[in-house]
Design a protein that fits this description.
Blueprint (H helix, E strand, L loop, with lengths): L9 E3 L5 E3 L9 H52 L23 E4 L24 E5 L19 E4 L4 E4 L4
Antiparallel strand pairs: 1-2, 3-4, 4-5, 5-6
Length: 172
């Protein structure tokens, strides 16, 4: 004999007693939730370093662009005044900060008074980078030393070869 079982919360058994039927509560098991969290964690672990590298490349590019603008302003100042500006403020960039929040560094080399040789930025052979003026950003760490080979200078954005090179110090 087959027993009729209705599709509602209660089912009647063949003894005639009304008993509450089993309800299946839909949801996620702990294992499923842990799997989702693990997948999200893996995606974040892959994406975050790539995003940080992208942001850093963008800041370096912005610093190089800023320095090109400053170099053009210095060139205009030289045409107008027939000498290099003593400071970046004279060229109109005294308050400008690099993408990491530090002021751009400038040192007039050509003109009077001439700077001490110890103040000049130098390459791996300890030869001055420029003969007219030095212009650079302190980079991500906000610190620098005169030779480009110093660890604190490797992330600097520098101008070298009297403007023929503008880029990361480690690439010069």
């Amino acid at each position: 004999m087959s027993v009729f079982r209705p599709r509602h919360a209660f089912s009647i058994h063949h003894e005639g007693c009304a008993v509450q039927g089993s309800h299946r509560i839909s949801g996620f098991t702990l294992v499923e939730l842990l799997a989702v969290v693990a997948i999200i964690g893996a995606l974040v672990a892959i994406a975050l370093p790539n995003y940080e590298a992208y942001v850093e490349r963008s800041k370096r590019t912005a610093a190089m662009s800023d320095m090109t603008s400053i170099m053009m302003a210095i060139d205009r100042h030289v045409i107008r005044a027939n000498e290099f500006p003593a400071t970046l403020a004279e060229a109109g960039f005294g308050e400008m900060l690099d993408p990491w929040g530090s002021a751009y560094q400038y040192l007039r080399i050509s003109g009077t008074p001439r700077p001490n040789q110890g103040q000049l930025r130098k390459d791996k052979n300890l030869v001055p980078l420029n003969s007219d003026y030095d212009l650079y950003s302190l980079g991500k760490d906000g610190r620098s030393q005169k030779p480009l080979t110093a660890a604190t200078s490797r992330d600097d954005i520098v101008r070298a070869g009297n403007g023929a090179f503008v880029g990361l110090a480690v690439d010069h």
